[in-house]
């Protein structure tokens, strides 16, 4: 986000806190939308820190209703039904450890943001500094009751991090969710190259990152040759890529068999085993040799 935009949000937040122009929606907003009045309480695994109190369930009528746009892997801009925009940092969540996970987190948040949102500040006074701007800390839900934070953690895209604001009330529970997610998802594929004809022996070679990854092609487990060509992992196979045909299924796992994902999927489909493919801007693309 540009510094100018962040400064504008900081000013809007300061005015909001000073004047109280952002109000808790009572279900009778000026646009005639009374849907919030009929919402049931939101129950989650870990609860919601709401004005310094851990609530589970939390009453949606006590939150701030509006629309959100995604600004980062743990950062959103809340546009309330009444009042100016609020920069929101998700409570007790840090930025994921690599760009692939960040992109995955933003993709998940973008899907959630298609619904109306309800924001619960962790407290009225707790804020944090993001770049040169001030963000409020709290939790956001979809109008249907999905927690942004717990969705990220459960799908392996959230990184739990203490940030004050009474985070101790949910930190241990978030950590438990994070550990459970790690049993289902090893992480995101950061880099990938399908070489149907390797330079050394004319057979299929797959370069990938992260390292120490088990690579399986149409059920055949390749042989690990460590890193190479700027990738953390090099895996060789018994035949040229053409021999595996079309719509080839590739699966990457860690040593325990837990799968890595690409764009949320645990398998990669190679349209034509004879062609070179690589990961470009988070998507599989033809990658002809220069």
Can you describe this structure in just a few lines?
With 290 residues, the chain is of the alpha+beta class. It has helices spanning 3-19, 99-112, 148-154, 171-182; strands at 48-50, 53-55, 64-70, 75-80, 86-90, 93-94, 117-121, 127-130, 133-142, 159-160, 187-188, 191-195, 205-209, 214-217, 220-221, 223-224, 233-236, 246-253, 260-261, 268-272, 277-280, 283-286.
Strand order of the largest sheet: 16-17-13-12-21-22
CATH-scheme architecture of the largest domain: Beta Barrel
Gap from first CA to last CA? 35 Å
- Count structural domains: 2
- Gross morphology: elongated
Uncertain ranges: 1-37
Structural class: alpha+beta
The whole-angstrom Rg is 23 Å
**The first-level CATH class name of the largest domain:** Mainly Beta
Which fold name is given in CATH as the topology of the largest domain?
A: OB fold (Dihydrolipoamide Acetyltransferase, E2P)
How many alpha or pi helices? 4
Total number of strands = 22
| Helix content bin | 10-25%
Mean pLDDT: 88
Strand portion? 25-35%
What order do the helices and strands follow?
A: HEEEEEEHEEEHEHEEEEEEEEEEEE
Give a short account of the largest sheet.
6 strands, antiparallel
